[in-house]
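Appendix B. One record, verbatim.
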Amino acid sequence: MSLIQSAKLNKHEPYAYLKDVLARLPTQKASAIDELLPHNWKPAAAEKV
């Protein structure tokens, strides 16, 4: 629930945010995991919302 609220607070559509993060998570480097946090997240180029 906190990820959804954080996404909303950062003006992201929660479904698009979670879908993108869950798709990228398996290949994301551990050292760059903070890029997927709501306040740092940028949508993938093909899925700009």
